[in-house]
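Researcher: Please predict.
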Amino acid sequence: MISQAKRWITPITIMDDFFIRAVIAGLGVALVSAPVGCFIVWRRMAFFGATLAHAALLGVVVGFLLSIDLVLAVIVVCVLVGLTLFAMQRQRTLADDTLLGILAHAALAAGLIAVAFMETVRIDLVGYLFGDILAVTPWDVLWVWGGGIAVFASLAVIWRPLLSITVHEDLARVDGVPVARIRFLFVLLLSIVIAVAMKIVGILLIVSLLIIPPATARRFSTTPEQMAGLGTLIGSISVAAGLAASLQWDTPAGPSIVAVATLLFFGSLATPRRQTG
């Protein structure tokens, strides 16, 4: 009788453990992705975020090839891709969206080709592309929250200069704002967010979590700080509800989170927009 009870209790305990870890990790991603995502929405950089997300797969491959931490490899590759874009923007032959399209698909193709040549290493592409939040380990949770706190603190330091650049880059430069340095720091912070979040919602879906909650919060906010805070709340609700739906109906966790965020966005369109006084 006692042994039978143990057989029932043990799976429940294990399920509770991995589900709690998933919720904690997901909330950590929501906490930091919304404030960073606000600037992506304000600066119309959604395609830029997607480009760095595509480059993350190449970072994963580099990490396996060099036997280094995958998060660190993703950060380095994403920063290099961002710097490459900044360098290419100096030429006026091609529009920015064309450059982004080229870099995004080139990085993704390079990553997939490199995977094909790695015969001795097996990579769970589905897990990296679409996330596997239910498989996060305590170490992953530490990475998410450690990286998230570092990003949050850094973003707080450059918040005002970054806002100035967002409003008017030339005026910010005249006022003495180090535009190039601030832009580099923002790319670095965005790269860290993508790196720590890729196991939560996946490389292809992280941009959704960066964009959808801030876009939803924009309708109800009158200040940048309100939009960042409300976006964090909406992202957290999306994570909790998406995980609950995944557990209830046995759907993929990452896409479920994005689906809930999308439903909240379309629901917000049906509500009156907040008017400023």
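Model: The two ends are 68 Å apart (CA to CA).
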